[in-house]
């Protein structure tokens, strides 16, 4: 079973990844292709967060799984927006 602390740590990591990605997405809209490296890094952080949360969900209790699933959906939303945006 996942500990409350480990769930909180991974949720915080995911929130940080979302915040960073949203910042890079905003910059991309302003600068177009000039922040490509940071944009790609933000997308990679989102993917890593999804992967880690997926692993954690397997050992969580029902409440933790729900919290993790909600966070994964938020990450996926941001990731989809970044993928769809014509950033080249």
Tell me the domain tally.
1
Radius of gyration: 14 Å
Tally of helical runs: 3
- Given helix and strand content, the structural type is mainly alpha
Low-confidence stretches: none
Which percent range describes the beta-strand content?
under 5%
Give the H and E element order.
Answer: HHH
What distance lies between the first and last C-alpha atoms, to the nearest angstrom?
Answer: 43 Å
Shape: elongated
Helix content: over 70%
Sheet with most strands: none
Q: What would the average pLDDT be, to the nearest integer?
A: 89
Tell me how many strands there are. Answer: 0
Description:
This protein is mostly helical and 88 residues long. 83% of the residues lie in helices and 0% in strands. It is built from three helices and no strands. It has helices at residues 4-31, 36-57, 62-84. The N and C termini lie far apart (43 Å).
What key attributes describe this structure?
single chain, 88 residues, mainly alpha, 3 helices, elongated
Would you kindly provide a brief summary of this structure?
This is YtzC family protein. Pfam families: DUF2524. With about 90 residues, this protein is mostly helical.
